[in-house]
Amino acid sequence: MKTSIAGVLALLLIAATAVGQDSGRSAPNSGASAPQKALTVSGRVSDDGKLLLTDIDAEWAVSNAESLRGQEGRMVVVRCYVDSEKNRIRILSVKRGDSGTPYAARYADSAFRR
Smallest Cα–Cα separation from 91: which of 66, 58, 55, 56? Predict the structure, then answer.
């Protein structure tokens, strides 16, 4: 009789610890997104300022289009969070892209002497 009570108590203890361990885990599709890492993306801003056309011909919708105000039609480099499921980005910072930096050459330099 004592061994059956001890066995039942042991089973209850094992079941309670298993439930306690499992309750700390979250469901994989619970809607809570994992922490995102900011990425750097370069591309051209569309004329309406709501799309970013990247160098690899991908279009990203901008969720906070007001951050691109005044940059329409220009090349920019943005730091952003990417939501690849919805094909959207949320911009953190914007820098103007290089639109052909002029190079200066000195013809008196030793590279030009031959």
Answer: 66
Q: What is the pTM of this model?
A: 0.55
Nearest 5°: phi and psi at 3?
A: -70, -35
In a domain, 111, yes or no: no
In the predicted model, is pLDDT for residue 90 greater than 90? yes
The pLDDT tens digits for 34-72 are 567 889 989 999 999 999 998 787 899 999 999 999 999
Q: Is residue 86 part of a domain?
A: yes
Beta strands in 1-114 (DSSP E): 39-45, 51-54, 59-62, 75-83, 88-96
Q: Residue 59 in contact with residue 87, Cβ under 8 Å?
A: yes
Find the CATH number of the domain harbouring 76.
Answer: 2.40.50.500
57-66, 80-89, 96-105 — which is least confidently predicted?
Answer: 96-105
Beta bridge partners of 93: 79
Q: Is residue 44 part of a domain?
A: yes
Under 8 Å between Cβ of 80 and 39: yes
